[in-house]
Design brief:
By secondary structure, the chain is α+β, with helices and mostly antiparallel strands. The chain has 2 domains: 27 residues, no CATH class; 88 residues, no CATH class. It contains 4 helices and 6 strands; from the N terminus they run ββββαββααα. The strands form 2 sheets. The protein has a 4-stranded antiparallel beta sheet, with no helix packed on it. Strands 5-6 form a two-stranded antiparallel ribbon. A hairpin with a 6-residue loop joins β3 and β4. The N and C termini lie far apart (43 Å). The model has no long low-confidence stretch (mean pLDDT 75).
Length: 123
């Protein structure tokens, strides 16, 4: 995101002077913010988080959209849970999301309404 701050234009990774001759790196964040269920995979492993990029926001939106598409029950106005993503650690959540994105069987399990609402983990 680019915004104007006084005499400089800023984006998420560099500060650009108005004359565009000089770029100064922005400091890296030293923390993670967000809900693990919706965080981008790059942000879940241990260690210092990577520099935040727009694609992390897009990936987070994808997980929110997936949750609503799979688990929202309009007649009851109830939002269920994707049980596979209900893990205690960010690493375990990342492992489940990676399986969801790469294995069709896991995708089917994740999006199955019976599994979503009853909390059954296996077929």
């Amino acid at each position: 995101m680019i915004h104007h701050d006084g005499d400089e234009w800023k984006d998420s990774s560099v500060v650009v002077s108005p004359d565009e001759k000089q770029e100064t790196p922005m400091p890296r964040p030293r923390y993670r913010a967000g809900t693990g269920l919706f965080m981008a995979l790059d942000l879940l492993p241990p260690g210092p988080p990577p520099l935040h990029k727009y694609r992390h926001d897009l990936e987070s939106f994808f997980y929110i959209y997936t949750t609503f598409a799979a688990a929202y029950d309009p007649p009851k106005r109830h939002l269920g849970k994707i049980m596979q993503w209900q893990q205690e650690s960010l690493i375990a959540i990342g492992d489940e999301k990676r399986r969801f994105l790469t294995k069709m069987h896991t995708l089917d399990q994740t999006l199955n309404r019976k599994i979503l609402h009853e909390g059954v983990r296996e077929y």
